[in-house]
Amino acid sequence: MARKEKNSIRNAGKPSIPIDAVIAWVDGDDPEHKRKMAPYLGSSIIDVPGMDPTRFTSVNEIRFCLLSIYTFAPFVRNVYVVTDNQDPDLYDDIRTYFPDRLQSFRIVDHSEIFRGYEEHLPIFNSRAIENMLWRIKGISDNFIYFNDDTFLIRKVSPDDFFVA
Question: What's the rounded Cα separation, in Å, for the pair 85 and 99?
Answer without folding.
Answer: 24
